[in-house]
Amino acid sequence: MEAKTVSQSKVEIAQVMMPEHANPAGNVHGGNLLKLADQAGAIVAARHTHSNVVTASVDRFDFISPAYIGNLVFIKASMNYVSRTSMEVGVRIEAECLRTGTHTHIGSAYLNFVALDKDDKPTEVPGLIPETETEINRYEEAKKRREIRLQLVKPHRHRQQACIIRLEKLK
Asked: Which of 10-14, 97-101, 125-129, 156-160 has the lowest mean pLDDT?
């Protein structure tokens, strides 16, 4: 399996925010932005792996500024890090006021995806080749986040396994 560069899978999506995306005050719902970020992240992960991918977790989603009805929202996503079967995608969300042309950084997120094979089991993914200084920094930062995430997930896995064992004893 040949490693890929960050540029081979990155994506940018643009969508005009309409009344159905917002509350009565005209502010775009955060859930709509989360959905767009997840879609863009999944596209990046699928382009990198050429397989089905699922969202495993969202490490962080920071809402920095609001978006409004009529704004053109840009979702920019690129691969930050890959391990054996999982990947971290960084997402930056910007809004452009079409009346003034002003661009605003409105949010950022880190989403984690797992690649699945034809039997919906985790499958190996191609390695990642960060080329620029920015990509190398993002790779190293994502690697640290992964280490922290794995430490936090361990207690949860143990509880889930204990639950399964108890259920099997009840049968």
From this structure: 156-160
High-pLDDT (> 90) share of the chain, %? 84
Contact present, 37 and 91 (Cβ < 8 Å): yes
* Tally of CA atoms within 13 A in the half-sphere of 67 that contains its CB: 32
Cβ-proximal residues to 136 (8 Å cutoff; 6+ apart), any chain: 130
The C-alpha R_g of the chain, in whole angstroms, comes to: 18
Give the residue with greater pLDDT, 159 vs 15: 15
How would you label 119-156 residue by residue, b for 16+ Cβ within 10 Å and e otherwise? Answer: eeeebebbebebeeeebeebbeebeebbeebeeeeeee
Considering the entire predicted model, what is its pTM?
0.85
Whether residue 82 is predicted with pLDDT greater than 80 in this model: the reply is yes
- How far apart (Å, rounded) are the C-alpha atoms in residues 137 and 140? 5
Query: What is the C-alpha separation between 124 and 1, in angstroms, rounded?
Result: 9
CB 130 within 8 A of CB 62: no
- Domains of the chain with bracketed CATH: 4-170 (3.10.129.10)
CB-CB contact of 41 with 61 (8 Å): no
* Pair 49, 2: CB distance under 8 Å: no
